[in-house]
Amino acid sequence: AAKALAEAMQTVQHTKHFAHPANWAGFILIGGNVRLSNKVALIGQALCELMRTPDKCRDALRVCLHLVEKSLQRIHRGQKNAMYTTQKSIENKAGPVIGWKDLLMAVGFRFEPAANGIPSSVFFPQTDPEDRLSQCSASLQALLGLSPTTLHALSKLVNNAEIADEIIGVMRNVVTQFPPKGTTSNESESIDIIIGVRLWRVAGCHELLASLGFDLMEVGQDQVTLRTGKQANRRNCQFVLQSLLALFDTQEAPKSLGIESSSSSESLNEDTSDEAAPAAKPPSPTPTAPEAQRSVSPAVTVKSQASYNFPRPPLPFRRVPFLSTRSAFISY
């Protein structure tokens, strides 16, 4: 609540017609400093925390995407058996960043303390209320699709949330000016945009647009004119728009990227008819070493309570878009 009030006061303070202290200085927070309980809003808040360390957050984003995609796959297949991974395995791969735990809890993962010989564990969600997992997957893929330079520029905007609506409006305008997919129009044709000087001077704004391939054409008294260069393309601009919505207007963030690459839900609809059928129940309920623990990927080790009775069928190979072959999330 204190942060929300501070941001609201800054917004009023920087609005031309309401900049006088009489319009914003008289507000005070009375009572406890409550936190938002809206799960979708908490997704954006957690992503903002991750973005505060842009040079270290990429591994954490990959691991979170892996876990979210695995959950979507299990839900799509109707798998109801409880599955968990150790919290330590996630921490080892995510690195020294904060925000990933809040992100996973916001989309339905359950954190349990150590008990009955089982270490601190993270249980996978078995449902996807309000399509939060799908929305989170699309947002994580968009963030991972950004270049390091763009990611650093975006991290600077996290500290300037008061201009979020303006920069989102700019990116919406840019994306709509690119020719639609499937048309014969040349995407390399230049696009001119005009933004206010005040927005241009905000830390992170000009770095973001420059990283997308926009060239500075003219600086006026109140406006700046930019033009797309050879490096600018619809795909990167779409990634940035999706990322901005995920960070600052999570309710409006799309549940798929809407670009040529398949979204997470489309990928999970792949034909799995060639998978091996589950084996018959073993005569002894005592798990063997391979049954008790299975490695889903180099990211984390996932364990299933059902593996004590039935060995799971092999998971299909699937490449995740935008990630390098050396990433923690390559195939299942």
Automatic annotation (TrEMBL):
<dbReference type="Pfam" id="PF26117">
    <property type="entry name" value="TTC28_C"/>
</dbReference>
<protein>
    <submittedName>
        <fullName>Tetratricopeptide repeat protein 28</fullName>
    </submittedName>
</protein>
<feature type="region of interest" description="Disordered">
    <location>
        <begin position="257"/>
        <end position="300"/>
    </location>
</feature>
<dbReference type="InterPro" id="IPR058900">
    <property type="entry name" value="TTC28_C"/>
</dbReference>
<feature type="domain" description="TTC28 C-terminal">
    <location>
        <begin position="146"/>
        <end position="253"/>
    </location>
</feature>
